[in-house]
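Readers of this paper often ask what the protein records in our data store actually look like. Below, we set out a record of this kind in full and without editing:
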Amino acid sequence: MKATLGLRQLLFEGEIRPGERLVELALVERLGVSRTPLRLALTRLEHEGLVMSLAGGGFTVREFTLAEIDDAIELRGVLEGTAARFAAERLSSPAELEELQEIVVRLDETIADDSPEAILGYVELNRAYHAQLVTLAKSELVGRAIGQAMALPFASPSAFLASLAELPEWRESLVVAQHHHRSLLEAIGGGQGTRAEQVAREHARLSRQNLDLVLERREILDRLPGAPLLNVTAPDGAGDPA
């Protein structure tokens, strides 16, 4: 776990750039781990799509185009839509929704707070909301798939939220997101699987809209974790190393 988290952080912060070969000996020393956990970490990040194996052995860091980020966000929406439908269809008691209901109430309070610090609280509550949605789906398979999709740069539901605090449009985005949160809660509670799936997929697309906002302010984009892995100018597929 230490090796995986440490290596992912190096990639997301741009300490190791796209196309750069990952040297095991240097990483062992840098991360303070032995070769075995490092190799396991490299295999896991390859599975997540953050690194690529080379024909002659070893790994290199991947680069992502906007088209690939679009696909990742859309995939997360499909998976979370499935989780929402499962949650609605598999709900066995109204009591199972109590935690999600409490999170929604706290999100309301956070949105009503005009302080710049409120966005940080919103980010944590938003993570908790999406985690609880996965729990309610009662599917380990769907949960693992969502976790893998979120591992890609900018694909998680909270990828851009902290950066939005610097933009005048941030509160409008949060209000729309909270409307989705409430609608999704109502659909699950009412056993409306199809509606829950549709709302969840629409909710995921907010991430793409938020990316568009951030792309207009390069100084903000460059500070986002994972930004060094994004090629906003490359044509589709051009970001893949040879």
